[in-house]
Amino acid sequence: MKMAARTPLVIAAALFAAAVVSPPRAVAQEKYAPSPANLEARQWFQDAKFGMFIHWGVYSVLGNGEWVMETRPISGAEYAKLPRFFNPIKFDPAAWVALAKAAGMKYITITTKHHDGFAMFGSRLTDWNVVARTPYGKDVIGLLAAECRKQGIKLFFYHSQLDWHSPDYFPRGRTGRHAGRPEAGNWEAYLNFMDGQLRELLTNYGEIGGVWFDGMWDKPEADWHLARTYALIHQLQPQALVGSNHHKTPFPGEDFQMFEKDLPGGHTTGFNPEQSVSALPLETAETMNDSWGFNLTDEHYKNVGEVIRYLVRAVGSNANFLLNIGPMPNGEIQPEFVQRLTEVGKWMKQYGDSIYGTRGGPVTPGPWGVTTQRGSKVYVHVLDWNQPVLALEELPGPIRSARMLRDGSNVEFSTVKGGLVLKMPEAQPDEVDRVMVLELEGPK
Ligand code: FHN
């Protein structure tokens, strides 16, 4: 693996760790009561379980991730040359959406604007956008939105509140200090601009799944006018789910909670030392290699088994899994990603019953694996266990039957005081997850 010593992840984790000590000044949408459409969308979201995260912007041209402006570093004037090289003639939104569907994904979350401030849509509020500044000249978000509608998959908009381009993003936060912007700016004007772009996104691209905010951590003490922004979204599209990757416990007005490179409650990255798990729908995002945006030299790919395991562990922790790809500057998705997504899709075809529409199961996740549950069915996902029997804590009701999901064969089990013992069938070659279906007595 070739990676710079200080990767964006390391930098971001350090920034977050510093950021979390200060209490948020953000007053969110305190009196928010989600609409019936929003509550319905939350259910849908929790049932959907698996989504595709797409980081794509002019930074992909440099093949060094979406933080390249900051890590290299590149001034604003130099970075402004980059859009001229963005001409993704191989961008085929139909193929992207088809790939997501083939992988078993039910929604796509794409970067409408990342920290470089560059709009991947035809914004009328600035010409710092894909239509005005690139030889490609087409509205990427519009093309993808149309295709998602056509193929029946929901589209969510990632939107960076942090902006390394706008002079009005002032006072500066912890990042974006090499851009060469004047030491003056109007924060209120920036917030108005951000809300204006959100209005465009929520007005011009049909019904969307939701907005995935990122970047508040750059200026944790600032007044972000969250109440106004969240109310605007809920008013324009009541069903749209609002979530923010601020790495704190959700603020009022948010409809789902996300975790980055961590399962809910995990604290392995340093992003979220004080983040607790809320009762909102949950989602965890992860990369396929070590990069979000396209990275030419990052070959640290997770293998198919690792991706499936992460998906299963997320779902067993009651969360969705948002798996990232960073398309290449020509618009193609690199073969390493396509191959893995296709393989995951085959697994989902066979084992999707134990994933879609489930919630985290009754057994505490452990190194051995996790459980998921839908109605009277408890799915036991055995991920890392090579012993002949597996002992689990007691289930909420007596067990009517136990079968392997792969072929319906019986699984021997016995109940003991306070628990359950399953006789483990042999793992088949390359079987990443031995899934058992336990049918509980009671209403089906
Ligand atoms: O800084 C970003 C990063 O580039 C990427 O977009 C991830 C995705 O979760 N979020 C931020 C870091 O928390």
Kindly summarize this structure in a few lines:
By secondary structure, the chain is α/β, with parallel strands linked by helices. It has helices at residues 8-19, 36-48, 68-71, 76-79, 93-102, 130-133, 140-151, 187-204, 226-236, 304-316, 335-351, and strands at residues 50-54, 107-113, 154-160, 210-214, 241-244, 257-260, 282-286, 319-325, 359-360, 369-374, 377-382, 389-393, 399-404, 413-416, 419-423, 434-440.
Spell out the key features of this protein:
single chain, disordered N terminus, 444 residues, eight-stranded parallel beta sheet, alpha/beta, binds ligand FHN
Strand percentage: 15-25%
Outline type? globular
User: How would you sum up the major sheet?
Assistant: 8 strands, parallel
Low-confidence stretches: 1-6, 20-25
Work out the radius of gyration: 22 Å
Total beta strand runs: 16
Mean pLDDT: 94
How would you describe what is shown here?
- It is a single chain.
- The chain has 11 helices and 16 strands.
- It has about 450 residues and is α/β, with parallel strands linked by helices.
- The strands form 3 sheets. The protein has an 8-stranded parallel beta sheet, with helices on both faces.
- Helix 5 packs across helix 11 (about 335-350), helix 8 (about 185-205) runs parallel beside helix 9 (about 225-235) and helix 10 (about 305-315) crosses helix 11.
- It is globular, with a radius of gyration of 22 Å.
- The protein binds ligand FHN.
List the helices and strands and how they pair.
Blueprint: H1 8-19, H2 36-48, E1 50-54, H3 68-71, H4 76-79, H5 93-102, E2 107-113, H6 130-133, H7 140-151, E3 154-160, H8 187-204, E4 210-214, H9 226-236, E5 241-244, E6 257-260, E7 282-286, H10 304-316, E8 319-325, H11 335-351, E9 359-360, E10 369-374, E11 377-382, E12 389-393, E13 399-404, E14 413-416, E15 419-423, E16 434-440
Helix pairs in contact: 5-7, 5-11, 8-9, 10-11
